[in-house]
Specification:
Layout (H helix, E strand, L loop, with lengths): L1 H58 L3 E5 L7 H9 L2 E6 L5 H18 L2 E4 L4 E5 L19
Parallel strand pairs: 1-2
Antiparallel strand pairs: 2-4, 3-4
Helix pairs in contact: 2-3
Amino acid sequence: MGFKDSFKQFFNLDEDLEEQMAKMEASEEQERSARSRLSRRNHRSLEEQETAGVQEQLEHPAEVAHVNPYNFDDVQMIIDEAKHHKIVIFNLSKVTRVEAKRMLDFISGAVYALDAQIAKVHNHTFVFALDTLDIEPVLSDYNVNQTS
């Protein structure tokens, strides 16, 4: 009777193992299908967001702000305008070389923090924008050693 019981017990465990494996496979299949549904939903959501962004840009054209800073305190106005999704054109011809360098350093930090862009337009004139406008940054062309 000992051999027969151990034989039955061995095969019962085997059946239990098969049941557990089947349950695990069913559970994994449910997880895969749930992930697939979630992925499709997220993909649709991303498409809707992109479409909404394009639609919003068509409905609300970009605003442009022009700023002539006279001292370092005026730089905050440039950053604030850009944070309000405006394209900011600013001219540094009214400030000293030292102030211009300091202003550009501050604005460069804001460009990095806001994931924005800056480009030189003319001698002392720059354009600063968030991701609403694709501009190529050429800040290195600005020579702050020039007399203002």
